[in-house]
Design brief:
alpha+beta; 57% helix
């Protein structure tokens, strides 16, 4: 979920007792200032005590000698607990944990979301240090936890939720009584929602993480979590829109991989006043659901402008898929089919050219020499009124008049 509150980050200090030594204990603002003054890279690591990949990185990546050595030479690492400092996390646009954001001179170079191995993290940071453009990248494969590690993790949940509404559910989870834990969590969820601070968008994140762990435990627990999702849906219908209830409903659908429900909801919301603003807060979830169900019409209909990075990712992948599939793009029927693909047309919706430049950069980087993407790109840009002189220059540069005359008919003379 994308942050809703954009505020100036307050000066803070973070208590990191027992944390990996690579983490600074000076606080976000102090670390930011020190990195700028010392001409070092500043890595902000957005984490949460309830986040399983974060816990895994704490015992692997952050204590690896290669990471410690790189940070000692070139960087400063701020570990930012999103529950302790939700305003700073919101200001940084953190929407999932763990997120690592790399800064140079106070300017963001790039970010990565999900578990990162030591080797992948060092390679990513080193690319930033060398001035390479850093794309938003996905997670590394996470090492498989042992039975002992799983037991320790369940015990840590019991400690984390001690004294909260989920105290008994977390204790049952630690004892391996998964179905009973899920039923108890379902029972107390209304109290969790009633107590949640509406100004803190991460207020129910830990509880949702516990629900996800239970849903993955066994079928009986999964059924209870599905029932919890339905309970929250009924609450929304009877009491009206409530932020944390809506967040719970969307996130639990993602946990249960019930993407059709999310897509159907996105279609309904898009037709309401201010509906796009609501969908923007759940952009990640909507796009994952769209990709999983191939409901690409939702992308064009619901995404705010400019087109999101995720839409760019999906769209450029689809362009590449079309060209790698062996389709004869000179065939008018096939070309029309490709051009009518709503996710591809959505790439050209924004007015400032951001999406178009990102598409070109992606294709120049990843398209092979035997996959000529320029004719298709020129045709799409022409048909949506986004064709520029530098696009036309490709026609001569790549001798496209001879190789793709049918696609480019009438374009060169515009």
């Amino acid at each position: 979920m994308i942050a809703t509150t954009m505020v100036t980050a307050a000066v803070c200090s973070v208590s990191l007792a027992g944390e990996p030594e690579v983490f600074s204990d000076a606080g976000y603002e102090a670390d930011r200032a020190a990195a700028i003054e010392q001409d070092r890279l500043h890595l902000v690591y957005a984490t949460a005590s309830w986040c399983p990949p974060c816990r895994r990185m704490k015992t692997t990546t952050w204590v690896d000698e290669s990471v410690e050595s790189w940070v000692a030479d070139y960087g400063i690492v701020t570990a930012l607990d999103v529950d302790e400092f939700p305003q700073i996390a919101g200001d940084l646009g953190v929407r999932a944990m763990p997120t690592m954001i790399l800064f140079e001179g106070g300017e963001e170079l790039g970010r990565t979301v999900g578990y990162q191995s030591a080797a992948d993290l060092v390679a990513w940071m080193e690319a930033g240090r060398n001035g390479e453009e850093l794309p938003e990248v996905g997670p590394s494969p996470m090492p498989v936890a042992t039975d002992e590690e799983r037991a320790e993790q369940r015990a840590s949940y019991a400690e984390q939720f001690a004294g909260t509404h989920a105290n008994d559910a977390a204790q049952l989870f630690a004892e391996g009584e998964f179905a009973d834990a899920a039923a108890e969590l379902r029972r107390v969820w209304p109290a969790i929602l009633d107590a949640a601070d509406p100004e803190n968008e991460y207020a129910v994140g830990g509880y949702i993480a516990l629900a996800e762990m239970l849903a993955r435990s066994d079928e009986a627990s999964r059924a209870e979590i599905a029932g919890l999702r339905d309970d929250v849906e009924n609450r929304l219908k009877s009491q009206g829109a409530q932020w944390h209830a809506l967040e719970t409903w969307v996130d639990l659908n993602m946990v249960l991989q019930d993407y059709e429900r999310v897509v159907a909801w996105a279609r309904r919301i898009a037709e309401r006043p201010n509906g796009l603003g609501t969908l923007q807060q759940f952009e990640w979830e909507v796009l994952v659901a769209v990709q999983s169900t191939e409901a690409w019409d939702v992308t064009a209909a619901t995404l705010p402008k400019p087109v999101s990075k995720l839409a760019l990712y999906f769209g450029t992948m689809k362009i590449a898929d079309y060209m790698q599939s062996g389709m004869d793009l000179d065939d008018p029927m096939i070309l029309e089919f490709v051009l009518r693909d709503p996710v591809i047309s959505a790439l050209f919706q924004d007015d400032d050219g951001t999406a178009e430049r990102e598409v070109v950069r992606y294709l120049e980087t990843y398209a092979s020499d035997d996959m000529p993407w320029q004719p298709l790109f020129i045709k799409i840009a022409h048909d949506v009124g986004k064709l520029r002189d530098d696009h036309r220059a490709w026609i001569d540069e790549y001798n496209l008049r001879e190789s793709h005359a049918d696609i480019l008919e009438g374009i060169a003379d515009d």
